[in-house]
Design brief:
The chain is 0% helix and 49% strand. With 230 residues, it is mainly β. It folds into two domains: 105 residues, Lipocalin (Beta Barrel); 118 residues, Beta Barrel (Lipocalin). The strands form six sheets. Strands 7, 8, 9, 10 and 11 form a five-stranded antiparallel sheet that branches. Strand 13 and strand 14 form a beta hairpin.
Length: 230
């Protein structure tokens, strides 16, 4: 991993496999409270000092093969893992110490395929079994799950009581964020591998057909679509 000066692009620090902390990075790191948190294909979750790159703590592998895409909310890191038995878990880890607060095994031996999203005490993940899951952020219990049609690499977004996620079948789905009740689905022209963004009552999402779509966040009505030039 390398940190660059945001003004000049010059290298500030580099941390690599030789340190025993960071191997191959999986997805993006998360930054909060002066710490850079990253997972790796060595089954480690590490917190690095944002200024120096020094390791503040490293969570032991404990039979885990992959740790990726940590999400920080307050003092807690929510992170998907894959065990040596190819089972998926969602873990809650203390940001300050790296201590595991809870770990919930994903149902049906599925894996979290996207970065977790936390909002109002609920953690949302889209899994490889083609379902969207909602977990209790405090205890890790599953609150609800809903089918979303197909495998997705789209991280959920939450806005005004609804949770939105894209799917490989080209649909954007919206569910009640508290109960999981279906609200609406809207079609694009190709598989959705990007994550939706919500602003000003509009859901924006890119599709593999090369277009950017804007949907009404409440009804799912298509507002516009625009080809994105290379």
């Amino acid at each position: 991993m390398q940190a660059l000066d945001d003004g000049t692009g010059g290298s500030v620090w580099t941390t690599g496999p030789g340190t025993g902390v960071v191997a191959r990075i999986q997805f993006r790191p998360a930054v909060s409270g002066g710490l850079v948190v990253t997972g790796s294909n060595r089954g480690r979750l590490s917190a690095l000092d944002e200024g120096t790159g020094g390791a503040m703590w490293t969570r032991p592998a404990s039979g885990t093969l992959f740790v990726w895409c940590p999400t920080i909310s307050g003092a807690v890191i929510y992170v998907p893992t894959v065990t040596a038995f190819e089972e998926g878990t969602l873990d809650a880890v203390s940001l300050s110490t790296g201590t595991t607060m809870w770990s919930t095994k994903a149902p049906t031996s599925s894996l979290a395929a996207t970065c977790p999203t936390e909002a109002a005490g609920v953690v949302y993940t889209a899994n490889t079994d083609g379902r969207l899951y909602a977990f209790d952020a405090a205890a890790g219990g599953i609150l609800w799950s809903q089918p979303i049609g197909d495998l997705t690499y789209s991280s959920p977004a939450v806005f005004d009581g609804l949770v939105y996620v894209g799917s490989e079948d080209g649909l954007v789905h919206a569910f009640d964020a508290t109960t999981g009740t279906f609200s609406w689905s809207a079609a694009t022209g190709g598989p959705i591998r990007s994550s939706p963004t919500v602003a000003g009552g509009t859901v924006y999402v890119g599709s593999s057909d090369g277009d950017l779509y804007a949907f009404d966040a409440t009804t799912g009505a298509l507002l516009w679509q625009q080809a994105v030039t290379a």
